[in-house]
Amino acid sequence: MEIQTIDPTEKSILQEKITRKLSNASDKMPIIQKIQDESNNITDYVVPIGKDSPIINFNSNGVVKMQFENAERNIHRHAIGQFADKFGIPTTYLKNLATGKEQWERDLASNLLNEHSTNNESKRYLLRELNGEVKGVLSDKYRRLNTAEIYAEFFNACVDQGAKLLDCCYDSTRTYIEFILPEVVPVQTQYNGTTYMVFGLRISNSDYGDGALRVQSYSMQVVCLNGMTRDNLIRQVHLGKKLPDNLILSNETYKLDTETQASLVRDIVKSAFDSSYLFNEIQNIEKAGSKLINLDHEVKLLPKLGMRKEEVKSLTDILSDNNPEHGVQGRNTIWKLTQAMTQVGVQTGNTRRKRDIEDIAGKLINKL
Question: Residue of 31, 40, 269, 316 with fewest CB within 10 Å of its CB?
């Protein structure tokens, strides 16, 4: 396959757009530092909870808290949901109570947690705490990985391959970093004209059970800066051997597991940026741009893939506009639909949700 050439004037304009986007990435370095600092400062406890275990007290003095190891700790909303799942309490209900504005709501949440924790059969849990807040309530078989070390390996490996930092995202339970090769590549589609792309990788992870460690192929349309993930090149769930009560005994395993994953990430990055990767991505775009679809039918199926009602409404508006500046043009194909979806992600203004929608769009490409 030969990569098409671009008109020199048009190439200059597109390349300048990518250069500006990449120049802003330097502002993201404090976020990467924050990701590293947090990963290195998590404190872990293996705690038995249940009717035959030492009493774990929950209370609602201001916010829902729990007491163990002779100290009181706040509980993050994500961890509240994990407690709900493990205790058999409706998750959304308990989360809403625990973060409710009224004191009676928080009192009810803590009472529910106390009743379940003192009457359920005893089980061991891994509690992950950061700065006095429990952010993860996990299985005692949870495989701990040092995100800071794995991300550092990803960062350095991408730089070695000539890739540039595009973006990173930090929220309280999940993180992302994206790199791209800065060269703009034109891709001619059968029904949606020429689309101008850059290609790269995304790594993401959660230290609190909010998703697996993943390295994914990543692409972005230059005109609109709509991004999309496609293949999971690595997807490692955090499941390992049963943790000992004394976590000091498992530190060597923690270190070795992290080194193994970091090495795997480095190897994946090296292989992902070769020419066969690039050609494979181009072929998938060409295929998506040649697949005509019944747009109304496909849009109705999107809630089953995870798009929300209000997002589907925004999607139909974007499709109706058929605006090339949004990456949407030509006849109704899978490519046109996925570009409209990723434009919805851009318009949400929520960096976490934007990436969720990019994953959903990629799944449609993968089905071809």
Answer: 40
